[in-house]
Amino acid sequence: MKKALHAVILILIAFTCMAIDCRCPFTPAGEFEVWTVYPEDGAVIYESEVTLIWSYSVGHARLGGFFVAVSTSPDSVIATTDDEVLDTTFTITDLELATTYYWKVVGWYGARGTQELESSEIVSFTTADEFYVPGQVHTPTPDSGAIGVSVNPGLAWQVFDPGLVGYDFDLYLGTTTDPPLQASGLSAPWHSLVSDTLDYATLYYWRVVAYNAVDTVDGPLWEFTTGYPSSVNAFALIEVDARQAPSGYHVMEEIHARFDTGVAIDAPIEPLQADSVFVEGTKLNWNTVDQNYSFIEESMPFIENGEPMDIVVYGNSEVPDLNTGPIFPACTLAIISPESFNTVSISGFEVTWDGSECGGTVWLTLLDGTDSTGVWKEVPNDGLDSLTAADLAPLGGQTGTYNLAIVKLVEENLIAPGYGPESLIRSRAFNIMEQIYLTGL
């Protein structure tokens, strides 16, 4: 009877050991296994330290301990006899931002010197671009810096809550960098604004404070700009012509800016007027004849090749504001032949130039003395091409003095709230023009 009772006790001990995952030599037969539990493979970690967790099944073996291997390379995840762990957790500190870590656990069993090893699979986790503290809000909707946002937006955010303790939120919103309280005691990480809360075409700042019974965490300052009414979708065509100057600069000679109710590249359909328009600090004048803004002067500002232009539009209810800096063409070109004051034939002639290292395409242009009649031909920027009789046909056989130039053209779609997607900013960099005589020979 005593022997039977003793056997029952041993069986109970064995099953108890297995249930609580202890190191017990009296376990049912089976294989020794080790597997990772946390972080899951591919997880994103938002803190500068992480505790690795794993589990195991000893089967019939007697557990000795574990070795943990961590590396930023999947090819060098090697466990050594250093840092032996007797528990099923291991904490890594001082993690680097935006880094992928690979790890595995190797368990050993048996006697020292004759132990046998069993390894888990290699898994990975990646640290975030920014480490968070518990309660920190992040990932706003709309994105910080967003433009064209509705005047009745739904604001949302995420909160880092690794302990699942729960947070309430206060929302601050306004037009200054210290926005006033908009809503308090929010139990969910989102808030919809009622109609007429926000104005059109306005920059707003907002932040969220997360709090609970034991902690209060201030969130970062975010911003967005509301769009224009749906009825405002102006077409804009802004053209800047500049002629080549020494040492990598161009001097701006002609500037035109036109706003319209619809797409009309050649002529305005229904012109719109802004309050004022500035390019490189120069105020443009309203031209009542051409129905656009323009400025033509010999002493205009210089602009460096490849640098952004400063274009500012002060708008109104019809023309949106604009503050942008498209890049002026980064190209210096020089005609080699025909030389200035040479005579060429209206039947066609060859043009050679320097500046092909700029790449892309250029325009060969032939303009009369008023720059109002001429030829524009787009060609590869390889330093050699021709203007043929067919190319010169728009001149109508008119001989005389013309200005020959090579032009580098850059067109950028204007992407800004209230402007249609067809809107353009057109920059044309003219080389120093050569004057030639076109004859019927």
Note down, in words, how this protein is organized.
The protein has 441 residues and is mainly β. The chain has three domains: 2-127, Sandwich (Immunoglobulin-like), CATH 2.60.40; 137-226, Immunoglobulin-like (Sandwich); 231-441, Immunoglobulins (Immunoglobulin-like, Sandwich), CATH 2.60.40.10. 4% of the residues lie in helices and 47% in strands. The protein is built from one helix and 37 strands. The protein has one helix at 2-19; strands spanning 33-38, 43-45, 50-57, 63-71, 84-85, 89-92, 100-109, 116-119, 123-127, 137-141, 146-149, 154-159, 168-174, 181-186, 190-192, 203-211, 216-218, 222-226, 235-245, 249-260, 271-272, 276-279, 282-283, 285-287, 292-296, 302-304, 311-314, 322-324, 334-337, 343-345, 348-354, 361-367, 374-380, 384-388, 400-413, 424-430, 434-439. The strands form seven sheets. Strands 19, 20, 21, 24, 25, 26, 30, 32, 33, 35, 36 and 37 form a twelve-stranded mixed beta sheet that branches. A hairpin with a 6-residue loop joins strand 32 (361-367) and strand 33. The longest helix has 18 residues, at 2-19. The N and C termini lie far apart (131 Å). The relative contact order is 0.09.
